[in-house]
């Protein structure tokens, strides 16, 4: 995977812009700072504002939409194969090594996701019922490392697979899936039109120097449950409109 941040951003732009984005509609929300965008559809994934700011050693990933954030979640199919994932995503210029993956592994993004057909937070019991394997339908956070794969579609992205027999560097809270994904347990806060995730960092300086964008997307598990395991199949909205990662932390 490319190690230069400009190359990573170029790969992100090429991959996500290859997936059609839903047409813009009239209307906008007035927000200061971060990236602002015109209203689009569907409303729960219609980005009007996104920021990353810091307080001490905590980075606050914030996104506002024109409808009720988190209101729409995938319908359960009863099977992992072919199931859907809905996500609010902050692609960043941060190196994947910042959070415990191999340096230069791909495009590091924070995501708030929901998917009723599987659970990928085995350390957590989000619904408080005493079971840790039935909470995937609740919104939860992940670090994911993204990269292009033509098997997902022309120019499309996937969460990068871990080839069988390899042992890459992984975060301590990796959920055991054969993917470059982390389940750190930071609970997304969804309130009215906003989604927010508060993330502590050992190296907050790297975060302050980063750039970012905002994306809402749908992903799908491969029908064969095999590499590529999890592809980006729909882009609902892009904050910048062109995936140029124009956002600057604390700006």
Q: How many individual domains?
A: 1
Treating each run of at least 4 consecutive H or I residues as one helix, how many helices? 2
Rg, Å, rounded: 17 Å
Tell me the number of strands: 14
Q: Which residues form runs of ≥5 with pLDDT under 50?
A: 1-11, 15-30
N-to-C series of helices and strands: HEEEEEEEEEEHEEEE
- Label the structural class: mainly beta
User: What share of residues are in beta strands?
Assistant: 25-35%
What about the largest sheet? 7 strands, antiparallel
How much helix is in the residues?
under 10%
Q: What value does the average pLDDT take?
A: 84
In whole angstroms, the N-to-C terminal distance is 29 Å
State the shape: globular
**Oligomerization:** single chain
Briefly characterize the structure.
With 251 residues, this protein is mainly beta. It has one domain (5-248).
Structure description:
With 251 residues, the protein is mainly beta. The protein has one domain. The chain has helices at residues 5-16, 204-208; strands spanning 35-36, 47-55, 58-65, 84-91, 107-114, 140-148, 157-159, 181-182, 189-191, 194-200, 211-212, 215-221, 230-238, 247-248. A hairpin with a 2-residue loop joins strand 2 and strand 3.
């Amino acid at each position: 995977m490319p190690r230069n941040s400009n190359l990573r951003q170029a790969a992100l732009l090429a991959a996500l812009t290859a997936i059609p984005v839903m047409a813009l509609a009239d209307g906008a929300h007035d927000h200061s700072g971060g990236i602002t965008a015109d209203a689009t559809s569907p409303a729960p994934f219609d980005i009007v504002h996104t920021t990353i700011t810091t307080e001490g050693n905590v980075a606050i990933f914030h996104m506002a939409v024109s409808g009720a954030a988190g209101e729409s979640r995938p319908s359960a199919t009863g099977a992992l194969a072919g199931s859907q994932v809905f996500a609010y995503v902050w692609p960043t210029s941060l190196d994947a090594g910042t959070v415990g993956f191999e340096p230069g592994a791909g495009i590091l993004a924070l995501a708030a996701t929901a998917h009723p057909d599987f659970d990928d937070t085995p350390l957590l019991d989000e619904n408080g019922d005493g079971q840790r394997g039935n909470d995937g339908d609740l919104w939860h956070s992940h670090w994911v490392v993204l990269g292009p794969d033509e098997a997902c579609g022309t120019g499309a992205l996937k969460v990068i697979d871990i080839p069988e027999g390899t042992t890459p560097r992984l975060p301590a809270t990796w959920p055991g899936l054969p993917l470059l994904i982390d389940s750190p347990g930071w609970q997304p806060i969804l309130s009215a039109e906003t989604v927010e995730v508060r993330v502590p960092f050992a190296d907050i300086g790297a975060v302050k120097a980063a750039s970012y964008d905002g994306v809402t997307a749908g992903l799908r598990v491969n029908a064969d449950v095999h590499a590529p395991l999890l592809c980006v199949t729909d882009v609902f909205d892009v904050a910048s409109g062109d995936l140029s990662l124009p956002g600057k932390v604390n700006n």
